[in-house]
Amino acid sequence: MSKTALDKDLKRVSGLNAAGSDLSRKLAAPGLALVFVLGVAVWASLSVAQGPSTTIIVIGAVISAYMALNVGANDVANNMGPAVGSRALTMVGALVIAAIFEASGALLAGGDVVNTVARDLLTTTDMTGTTFVMVMMAALLASALWVNLATYIGAPVSTTHAVVGGVVGAGVAAAGFGIANWSVLLTISLSWVLSPVLGGIFAAALLAVIRRTITTRLDKISAARVWVPIFVAVMTGIFAMYLATKGLSRIWKPGPVVTLALGLGFGALGWIVAMPIVRRQSLRMENRKKHVAALFRLPLIVSAALLSFAHGANDVANAVGPFAAVVTTLGSGHSQAADIALPFWVMAIGALGISLGLALFGPRLIRTVGEQITKLNEIRAYCAALSAAVTVLVASALGMPVSSTHIAVGAVFGVGFLREFISRRDMEFSSVPVNARFVDAGQLNATPEEALSRARKTERRLLVRRQQVFGIAAAWVVTVPASAALSALLYFALDLFVA
């Protein structure tokens, strides 16, 4: 009896230890995030001259750090999700690469879209400096809260749209509907539909080309030796143009001719480098689709890293843009500053916060994008990553504002739906007897058992999870109105507190 009692006591102690360890792991990430936010508060207080506005700047820095953590937790999944889902990268490898390239893009070429937020979305001529500061603070906090909620439920949303909704909601609460530039908002709304559709079309088209040139050929190895270097050249050229026009826009803005020349030059360089590498790798491969897909692994990793760099360069302003507007306004004394600056210490908050948020909270959204929408291999993930860059380039040339989040997720949907279409078509063809394949399949008599078996096969051919499609689409639709409503409520609360 004593031995039995001792065993029970040991089991209780072991259970308590396991529960304690599990609780410690769950609290570690929020604890590190809290330490970062407190560190940012101290950093902000030391980075600005002491005065009446110091407290406001410190509070704004804390909110901005919170937003940066959420941008890292949610947005970066779009770049690394396909690489992790295809098993080209481990989760740890993806987090390390994304953190390095996101921070590098933000610090070296951080894009300044603050003027778009302050000047294009709102007409601030009749708004006092104090009111403008409250609008920006409310917008930043509201967008951070909304992105945090989306991350918690596992929905990849556009932080750009969250910030836009927050700015417009607080602006309307402060000065009425006439302050919003509704034509700009209409254009942004159209991008909700255009972004995922364009991303899906480009990704599906690229996958169809790869199927036709490589994976459906009898001699896949020989076809891969010819075509994989060509696809690498296309990727290299496109990303050279992508980085020149988007990722490096803060430090260099080349014209169309120079951009095209860069694309052609780097494309040729990519082809020259890829030729011997692909040939050497293919010598040890079997003539199977799974083996040929491995040739796309390195291009996929490179594309994911470059997407992270460009994302950090462009979207760091989503995390710190409104805060930079607050700092500039408090420094100038009015809301109509000619240019809203993005100081290095402010940009560093965004860069570090995005990287830390990715490392602490990013894996959940990375799995959603990479694994829970549709099954990805190296080829499909490569198509999704490359189509994201192509879509942004085309949209930029046409002057359309698009969301990198919507494009990336739409690209994953595109390859999934194409696979589903091809799979169901092949299943229907193979289910018809050989001697009857030139007869309308609908005219063939089938027993109830055969009909049930065919229905079950068709159900299994739904290669895109509909629940994820509807859930993500719903989150996209409500992002702007939800962040706008929340921002308006926060503005009213701030206004009562200040009054």
TrEMBL record:
PANTHER family: PHOSPHATE TRANSPORTER (PTHR11101:SF80). It comes from Devosia oryzisoli. One of its GO terms (biological process) is phosphate ion transmembrane transport. This is Phosphate transporter. The chain crosses the membrane at residues 27-49, 55-76, 88-109, 129-150, 162-184, 190-210, 222-244, 256-274, 294-313, 340-361, 381-399, 405-422, 469-494. It is a multi-pass membrane protein. It is found in: Membrane. Coiled coil: none annotated. The lineage of its organism: Bacteria, Pseudomonadati, Pseudomonadota, Alphaproteobacteria, Hyphomicrobiales.
